Amino acid sequence: MARPPGLSARLKFTLSYAGIVVVAGAVLIAVAWWYLLRFVPDNDQGLLFTSPNRYLLSRIFGRAAAIAMLFLVAFGLIGGWLLAGRMLSPLDKIADAARLAAKGSLSHRIRLPGKADEFRELSDVFDTMLERLEAHVGEQRRFAANASHELRTPLAISQSLLDVARQDPSRVDAELLDRLHTASRRAIDLTEALLLLSRGERGVFTREPVDLSLVAEEAAETLLPLAERREIELEVTGEPATTTGSAELLLRMVTNLVQNAIVHNLPTGGTVTVHTEPQHQACVVRIENTGRRLAADLVPTLTEPFQRGGERVRDDDHAGVGLGLAIVHSIVRAHEGALDIVPRPEGGLRVTIRLPSS
Q: What is the rounded CA–CA span in Å between residue 172 and residue 157?
């Protein structure tokens, strides 16, 4: 943004300091002059050699006052310039760090030494902002790289199948078409997941009252055939819990969690429990499932994009794109809620979501 040139902050502070010193000195001189001349006789005889009269004292005191004022002006300008430079020196470091950040370097930190004050508080806030910005940019870069890699795989498979069909049209059979359909469906699912994740990150949606108990029942009804096919017992319990948000996104959130709980479960005889309840001016959705025991260091990575959890059970029936919990996390943040994932001691996960109550 182009701005017309103006006085620097240091020069403004210098002039302010000098002005305050000069005004204070002028007031003191004026008060001293007024009180001093008030008790001096106003005549030109009698006490001239013994006690000065008002005329003589005015000439002597006036000359000294003028010299004092000149000294105060010089002292105010020089002292103000040095003091302003010392006071504003932290701003120079903050400005240098901001310029580096504007050029794309986010690894620089200010770290002003000394005790806490306004400038050091500003420096600490700026350092915190740079840390979060650097982490966010790194996360976005990893996300873009992973998304490109995930999209490249089904597209490369589709390209290979099409090349085979082009070279030998007689080999176009049901198996080739099924494989091509599977690769295309995976690419479409990944694209839709990326769009949904982006929508949740932006937080742009219409908010309305949503009963999470009804959302849980709808998600369970949709996924009941999958649970029956895998011999998983799916149970929905709890009370009505009404929050404010997007019914579509909240349904996708619960559906993703229930689907993950069904797929990443015991081979047979597992259970999935979905429970909703109002709690302390919040709406709680709790989803528990049986399954393998998970390492504690694996759980925090489950909400990262394209992290599927290498120790969890997977098969070709539900390969997924690694965005299920990332989408859930994004939707929860967009609704100003909290997501808590805890491994159960006996195996499986306990996922708890708390959303503001309407």
A: 15
Report the alpha-carbon distance of residue 44 to residue 33 in Å, rounded: 19
Please state, in angstroms and rounded to a whole number, the distance separating the CA atoms of residues 164 and 177. 11
**Whole-angstrom Cα distance, residue 245 to residue 259?**
21
Reported confidence tier of residue 90, pLDDT bands at 50, 70, 90: confident
The CB density around residue 181, as the number of other CB atoms within 10 Å, is 12
Query: Which of 99-108, 161-170, 244-253 has the weakest average pLDDT?
Result: 161-170
- Identify the band that residue 1 occupies on the pLDDT scale cut at 50, 70 and 90: low
Q: Shortest CA distance to 328 belongs to which of 263, 260, 256?
A: 256
- Of the candidates 131, 149, 130, 133, which has an alpha carbon nearest to the alpha carbon of residue 305? 149
- Helix or strand or coil: residue 283? strand
Instruction: Provide CB contacts within 8 A for 218, sequence distance 6+.
Output: 251
Q: Which helix (H) or strand (E) holds 91?
A: helix 54-102
Taking residue 22's Cβ as centre, other Cβ atoms within 10 Å add up to 17
For the chain, give the mean pLDDT. 81
CB 286 within 8 A of CB 351: yes
The pLDDT tens digits of the residues spanning 175-186 come to: 777 777 777 777
Paired residues of 355 in beta bridges: 283
Tokens 């708390």, residue located: 354
Closest alpha carbon to 136 in 278, 353, 333, 348: 333
Rounded Cα distance between 195 and 355, Å, is 23
The pairing of beta strand 349-356 with beta strand 282-289:
antiparallel
User: Integer distance in angstroms from the first to the last C-alpha of the chain?
Assistant: 43
pTM value?
0.57
Question: What are the C-alpha distances in Å from 172 to residues 176, 178, 187?
Answer: 6, 10, 21
287 sits in which H/E element: strand 282-289
Planar angle of CA 215, 264, 311, nearest 5 degrees: 140
CA–CA distance, 179 with 158 (Å, rounded to integer):
8
Question: In this predicted model, which residue has the larger pLDDT, 26 or 179?
Answer: 26
Neighbours of 43 (CB within 10 A): 11
